[in-house]
Design goal:
mainly beta, Jelly Rolls, 2 domains, six-stranded mixed sheet, four-stranded mixed sheet, 13 strands
Length: 149
């Protein structure tokens, strides 16, 4: 019959693990295990990084008047004086989708960010980029809104 009264000792030091089970009436003591342990090797994976995380970024230019954000977009900078609006995709089925939108060095003070019909951006119908280097971060709530961060 197996004894259910067991004491477990788990000790980790510099990627070396000591895992021992003590049964009732076991002649070993905790002192024996700590000073004369039976080791089980633990492997850890370390990843060295040469920099930060890179996200998809693109500058949008040309003679178009509207840019529709795509599912491949993440960070976009509007660098055209002819683009008057950037349109978000529908919030529904895009829960957690995150965009960074920025106005580059343009003279177009009427550039706006707008949602699809029926959606909103933090209860607003649009956000205007009034100055060069204005930017905004938005995330979909998967229903009908884009939250501003």
């Amino acid at each position: 019959m197996e004894n259910i009264n067991q004491i477990y000792l788990y000790y980790t030091n510099q990627n070396i693990q000591v895992n021992q089970v003590f049964q009732e009436n076991d002649p070993k003591t905790i002192r024996d295990v700590v000073y004369s342990p039976v080791f089980t090797q633990s492997t850890s994976v370390n990843t060295l990084s040469t920099g930060g995380v890179a996200y998809n970024f693109k500058q949008i230019g040309g003679l178009i008047t509207n840019y529709d954000l795509t599912l491949d977009d993440y960070a976009v900078e509007i660098v055209s004086n002819t683009i008057n609006s950037v349109t978000l995709p529908a919030a529904v089925n895009n829960g957690g989708r995150y965009y960074v939108i920025s106005r580059g060095n343009t003279t177009n003070d009427s550039l706006i960010l707008r949602p699809r019909v029926g959606d909103n951006i933090d209860m607003r119908q649009f956000i205007q980029f009034k100055r060069v280097a204005n930017h905004i971060n938005v995330m979909s709530n998967n229903v009908n809104s884009w939250y501003v961060f």
